Amino acid sequence: MEERQISAAVIKRLPRYYRYLAELQNEDLERISSEELSRRMGVTASQIRQDLNNFGGFGQQGYGYNVEYLKEEIGKILGLDHTHNMIIIGAGNLGRALAGYAKFENRGFIVKGIFDNNPELIGKKVRDIKVVSMGVLDHFLEENDIAIATLAIPKEEAQAVAERLYAAGIRAIWNFAHVDLKLPGDAYVENVHLIESLMQLSYRLNKG
Ligand code: NAI
Questions:
Q1: Whole-model pTM?
Q2: Are 112 and 86 in contact (CB under 8 A)?
Q3: What whole-number distance in Å separates Cα of residue 77 and Cα of residue 14?
């Protein structure tokens, strides 16, 4: 499949297409028209056609989209056709909640290690994963093929830990600490801030 330069806005929408297609597959639907997909997803059919045309269309006039094929192709674009090993830094409330969420694995994101600098937490388990000391982080990264590091530590600690991860070869950081990390251009940081989502709700309430 030929790939053109895809806008960030389209990439951002792809996981949602993927989720809907997975649901359609669970309903044993073989194909779907862009109109029906549009009705279900609450976006216009022309938006769907435009988005998917970025990747060569996938659809056929008068047939619509083949659900399994489209899901598979979007999965490939999102890199879901292979697994990604990840670690979690910070075994506090959030780190443990993330580590305990087994469904990331269904999508190929495998938690391989949890790290913390609090000696009281070392050796504690989340599912079958033991919390280990930050002292062994670099060695662990040398020995294991880790693609993604999750930061669930206080914001004051996040920049230094991110730099250490970068120096050890990590290029993808899933950042929950409320700080904008400064890393070289080949590092990719995805920030997740629940509070910003709540602020959007608050804005809507205020307007209403
Ligand atoms: P917590 O205090 O329960 O856990 C933080 C953990 O990080 C502790 O176990 C602590 O020992 C460990 N830690 C501190 N410095 C460290 C370092 N240098 N290296 C390794 N481990 C270190 O806090 P909680 O509630 O789990 O939150 C963690 C972070 O995530 C905070 O920055 C918090 O603001 C943020 N957070 C972000 C959310 C979001 O939506 N982005 C939602 C909830 C929390």
A1: 0.91
A2: yes
A3: 9
